[in-house]
Amino acid sequence: MRSSAVACCFVVMTSLTPATAEIAWMRRSGAWQVSLYNGARGDAWCSWLTGWEDVSGLSQRTLSLQIREDEVILFLFLLENLPARLEEGAQAVLIFDNHQAKVKIDVARRYPNGFHMLRGVLAHGLDAQKQFAIAFANSSTAQVMIPGGNTWSLDSSGRLDTLPYVQQCMQEVEARSKAR
Questions:
Q1: Interatomic CA distance for residues 46 and 30, integer angstroms
Q2: For residue range 106-121, what is the model confidence (pLDDT) as tens digits?
Q3: How would you classify the pairing of strands 71-79 and 22-29?
Q4: What are the C-alpha distances in Å from 62 to residues 13, 14, 82?
Q5: Which of 32, 52, 77, 134 could cross-link 158 (Cys pair, CB 3.0–4.6 Å)?
Q6: Where does the chain show beta strands of DSSP type E?
Q7: H/E run at residue 30
Q8: Torsion of CA 29, 3, 110, 44, to 10 degrees
Q9: Are 82 and 64 a contacting pair, CB within 8 Å?
Q10: At a CB cut-off of 8 Å and minimum separation 6, what does 52 contact?
């Protein structure tokens, strides 16, 4: 189940990623995957993602945390009918252990095939990136909540094991941004 949700997201993410970006490397552990993307302008970013489906297999969801120069950006990809309209300016929340990271949705798109994409900045600054990565990886529980009352638990299997990859990826992104 999980692999088709991740594959579904990968198709949408590649359509949103500039054609000149390429995956430099990818690591996976349990339900989580970390990838380093290289852009044509010398930029780079990390993607830390997981995907899941409902028991029927009809609803597919993917959470991607993209780590760029000095931001962590939450992307949520949903293939399902949602009871509420998702709009820019609405708020999503990433809940992990005792943290509630509120995200103002700055991009909300619905594609003709019923696919929804939400985007919002989760953290600003290099210190905030590092603190977020450590706290999120070490959390025992995590959920994402969107307007309309939809809340989904995120599989924690492999999340902590991907932390060294996330940290390596962040170091490579930081080194490239200093070199530009």
A1: 18
A2: 999 988 888 889 999 9
A3: unpaired
A4: 10, 14, 15
A5: 32
A6: 22-29, 32-38, 44-53, 60-68, 71-79, 91-96, 99-104, 107-110, 115-124, 142-146, 150-153
A7: none
A8: 40
A9: no
A10: 1, 2, 5, 31, 60, 61, 62, 152, 154, 155
